[in-house]
Amino acid sequence: MLLLGEGDFSFSASLAKEFGSAANIVATSLNSGRFLQENYKKAMDNIQTLTSRGAKVLHDVDGTKMATHSSLQHLKFDRIVFNFPLNGFFPNESRESKLRRYREFVRLFMANAKKMIKIDGEIHITHKSYGFYLEWNLEEIGSQQGLRLLEEVPFNHLDYPGYHTKYGFGGDENFYCYPCKTYKFGLKRSQSKRRNKNKIKNKTV
Fold first, then answer.
1. How far, in Å, CA of 116 to CA of 108, rounded?
2. What is the DSSP string of 174-199?
3. Would you call the peptide bond into 161 cis, given omega within 30 degrees of 0 as the criterion?
4. What is the pLDDT of residues 110-134, one digit of tens each?
């Protein structure tokens, strides 16, 4: 399982505690270790929770370029999870300009994640499900990237004890996240068939 965009690593730490072992978890943050230490008071404790249970923790991982990251590029995952993707606030830009930015950000993430999931793997994006956020139209973006929406389910952060929804740009405040849903994507059947053919071809070469 690959987790992107962790704030104080409280979500991945919650999973690690629930699973007991975190040997199958790679938890990442766009921020540096120093930034986390300076901005999130529980980040280091959460990282210790992860590493002590066998998880791999990486910093400075950009979800829009992760398929070429030296520590990730050769790996395939059953699940890739990105909670509340956001690449900035852009207060001086128009609504339309922000929407284009956010949709392009999600598109680039999906394009990378698609290369990194197994044939039957899933990409999970948890996202606010009201107003402006619905205009991002995740299902449409996914379809354009060869992904199909498997299901969308309500998300409640209280189901993950200790999880705190932190802003990724500093400060230690939690943000409001209701209502929200987790959108689960998988490869379109045509994409899965293509991968299977390539797999068979590579085995016979």
1. 13
2. B----SEEEEEEEE-HHHHHHHHHHH
3. no
4. 999 999 999 999 999 999 999 999 9
φ/ψ (deg, to 5) at 87:
-115, 25
Distance, in Å, from the CA atom of 149 to the CA atom of 186, rounded to the nearest integer, reads 7
Q: 2-48: per-residue pLDDT in tens?
A: 999 999 999 999 999 999 999 999 999 999 999 999 999 999 999 99
Cβ count near 25 (within 10 Å): 22
Cβ(21)–Cβ(54) under 8 Å? yes
* 86, 102 Cβ separation under 8 angstroms: yes
Query: How far is it, in rounded angstroms, from Cα 169 to Cα 14?
Result: 22
Give the predicted TM-score (pTM) of the model: 0.91
Phi, psi of 198, deg, nearest 5? -65, -35
DSSP annotation of 147: E
Q: How many residues does the chain have?
A: 205
What whole-number distance in Å separates Cα of residue 60 and Cα of residue 189?
33
Cβ neighbours for 51, distance < 8 A, ≥ 6 positions apart: 57
